[in-house]
C-alpha cells in the first residue's frame, strides 16, 4: 500500500488529471449501463403491450369451427403468417395454431401447454435459449360446444428487440465515449486554468529569489490569499530581521570606535604601565559590554524596554566625557557640565551608555573647541541639552541627519553616519524625543527628553 502511494504523482495537476481519467470513465460507464438497462426494460414493456393487443385481436377473431373446436377463423392472414399463435384447452391439447407456428414443431406447443394459468393471470417471459418472447392469456370460453377454459399464446422472436438494443448500444456508447473524451479535455483546460494562480505564485517567488521583487504582488484567489499574506508577512519579517542584523553590525563597529580611540590616545600619552593597563582594562570591559549589548539588540523585540531599576545619568555623562577628552585631547575641547546629580531614569544602563556615548561623541567630533552639556529634571521629564560650536545643522537637514548613514559634514571627521540613528532607535523604545536645533555656542544643539511617569 505504501509503495503504491509513493508512486502517486506529486503534481497537483497530475493528481487531478489521473483522478479524472479514472473516475470520469467509471461514472460514465455506470450511467451508460443504467441507461442501457432502462432502455431494455422499456423495450420489453413496449413488446409486452404489443403482444397483449395482438392476443386481443386473436381472441376477437376466434370462434368455434365445424368440429366444435376453437380456431381464429377470422384472423387476417398477415398476422397468422408473421407470428406463431397457439390455442390450447385446459387439458393441454392444441386446439389451433397459425401457419407461422409450424416451423417450431410440436415441441414448442407441448412446452407452452405444460404450465396452465388461472383466468386472472397472464404470463410474459423471455425464453433466452429459444430466443423467443412468450405472452400467454387464459380465457374462460362460453360457447355451445366448446365451453371451457383455454390458453391463448403468442410467440415473438427476440431478434427485433436485440437489433434495436444493438443499435441503441452503438449509439449510446459512441456518444458516451465522445462525452468522456470531451470532458477530459475540458477538465485538463479547467485544471490548468484553476491552478494558474499557483504557477503565478511560483513565478513571483522566483522573482523574489532573484531579487527582482520583495513581495508577492499578484492578485490571487481568496482560497490562497491567506497563504500569500502569510508568505508576504514572513518575507517582511525576514527582511526586517536581516536589516536589523546589518544595522546591528554597523552599530557595533560604530560603538567600538570610541573605546579603541581611548586606548590609542592613552598610548600616545606615555602613561606609566599601571596607568595604561588600567585604561586598557576599562575600555576592554566597555567593549565587551558593547558587544553583548549589540548582540542582545539583534535578537530582542522592538517593544519598549522594561528596566528593573533606575540609572543615574550624571555619573554616566562624566565617565563618557572623561574618555572623550582623552580621545580628542589634541583639539583642546573646553567642556562645560551643568548636571542635576539626582537625575535618574528607568532604563537599561547599556541603552543609556550607547545613547549618551553617540550623542556626546558627535559633539566632541564636530565641535571646534567648546562643548556644553546641561542635565535638568522637571516634574514630567528629564531634559539633556548637548551643544557645540561646530558648523551646526541647517533647518532643512535636521530631519535628514536622523536617517541611517546621513551626515552633514563629510570632511570634518570620518564616520559612518549611524550614531544619531542608533540614538533615535533607543529613544523610541522609551518614548523619548530628540530635537535638533541651533546652539547658543554657534553650532548644533541636541535636546534629549526622557518622559517621566
From TrEMBL:
Keywords: ATP-binding, Kinase, Membrane, Nucleotide-binding, Phosphoprotein, Transferase, Transmembrane, Transmembrane helix. Coiled coil: none annotated. The keyword Isomerase does not apply. GO terms for cellular component: plasma membrane. Its EC number is 2.7.13.3. It is found in: Membrane. SUPFAM superfamilies: ATPase domain of HSP90 chaperone/DNA topoisomerase II/histidine kinase (SSF55874), Homodimeric domain of signal transducing histidine kinase (SSF47384). One of its GO terms (molecular function) is phosphorelay sensor kinase activity. The chain crosses the membrane at residues 12-35, 172-195. It catalyses: ATP + protein L-histidine = ADP + protein N-phospho-L-histidine. Residues 251-453 form the Histidine kinase domain. PANTHER family: SENSOR HISTIDINE KINASE YKOH, SENSOR PROTEIN PHOQ. This is histidine kinase.
Amino acid at each position: 500500500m505504501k509503495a503504491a502511494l509513493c508512486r502517486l504523482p506529486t503534481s497537483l495537476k497530475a493528481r487531478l488529471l489521473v483522478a479524472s481519467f479514472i473516475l470520469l470513465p467509471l461514472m460514465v460507464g455506470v450511467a451508460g449501463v443504467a441507461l442501457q438497462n432502462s432502455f431494455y426494460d422499456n423495450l420489453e414493456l413496449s413488446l409486452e403491450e404489443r403482444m397483449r393487443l395482438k392476443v386481443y385481436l386473436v381472441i376477437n377473431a376466434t370462434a368455434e369451427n365445424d368440429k366444435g373446436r376453437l380456431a381464429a377463423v377470422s384472423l387476417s392472414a398477415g398476422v397468422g403468417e408473421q407470428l406463431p399463435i397457439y390455442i390450447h384447452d385446459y387439458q393441454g391439447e392444441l386446439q389451433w395454431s397459425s401457419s407461422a407456428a409450424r416451423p417450431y414443431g410440436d415441441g414448442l406447443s407441448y412446452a407452452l401447454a405444460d404450465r396452465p394459468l388461472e383466468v386472472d393471470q397472464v404470463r410474459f417471459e423471455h425464453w433466452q435459449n429459444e430466443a423467443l418472447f412468450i405472452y400467454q392469456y387464459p380465457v374462460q370460453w362460453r360457447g355451445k360446444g366448446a365451453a371451457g377454459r383455454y390458453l391463448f399464446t403468442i410467440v415473438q422472436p427476440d431478434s427485433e428487440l436485440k437489433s434495436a438494443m444493438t443499435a441503441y448500444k452503438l449509439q449510446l456508447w459512441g456518444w458516451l465515449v465522445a462525452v468522456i473524451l470531451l470532458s477530459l479535455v475540458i477538465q485538463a483546460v479547467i485544471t490548468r486554468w484553476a491552478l494558474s494562480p499557483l504557477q503565478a505564485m511560483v513565478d513571483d517567488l522566483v522573482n523574489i529569489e532573484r531579487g527582482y521583487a520583495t513581495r508577492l504582488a499578484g492578485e490571487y484567489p481568496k482560497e490562497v490569499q491567506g497563504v500569500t499574506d502569510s508568505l508576504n508577512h514572513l518575507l517582511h519579517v525576514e527582511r526586517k530581521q536581516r536589516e536589523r542584523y546589518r544595522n546591528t553590525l554597523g552599530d557595533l563597529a560604530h560603538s567600538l570606535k570610541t573605546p579603541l580611540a581611548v586606548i590609542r590616545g592613552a598610548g600616545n600619552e606615555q602613561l606609566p604601565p599601571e596607568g595604561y593597563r588600567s585604561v586598557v582594562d576599562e575600555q576592554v570591559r566597555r567593549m565587551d559590554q558593547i558587544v553583548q549589548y549589540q548582540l542582545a539588540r539583534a535578537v530582542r523585540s522592538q517593544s519598549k524596554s522594561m528596566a528593573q531599576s533606575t540609572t543615574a545619568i550624571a555619573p554616566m555623562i562624566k565617565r563618557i566625557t572623561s574618555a572623550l577628552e582623552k580621545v580628542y585631547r589634541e583639539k583642546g575641547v573646553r567642556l562645560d557640565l551643568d548636571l542635576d546629580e539626582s537625575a535618574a531614569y528607568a532604563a537599561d544602563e547599556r541603552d543609556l551608555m550607547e545613547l549618551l556615548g553617540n550623542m556626546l561623541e558627535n559633539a566632541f567630533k564636530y565641535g571646534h573647541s567648546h562643548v556644553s552639556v546641561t542635565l535638568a529634571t522637571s516634574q514630567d521629564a528629564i531634559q539633556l541639552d548637548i551643544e557645540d560650536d561646530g558648523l551646526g545643522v541647517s533647518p532643512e537637514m535636521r530631519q535628514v541627519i536622523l536617517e541611517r548613514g546621513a551626515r552633514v559634514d563629510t570632511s570634518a571627521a570620518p564616520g559612518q553616519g549611524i550614531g544619531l540613528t542608533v540614538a533615535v532607535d533607543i529613544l523610541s523604545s522609551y518614548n523619548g524625543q530628540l530635537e535638533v536645533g541651533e546652539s547658543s555656542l554657534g553650532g548644533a544643539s541636541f535636546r534629549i527628553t526622557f518622559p517621566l511617569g
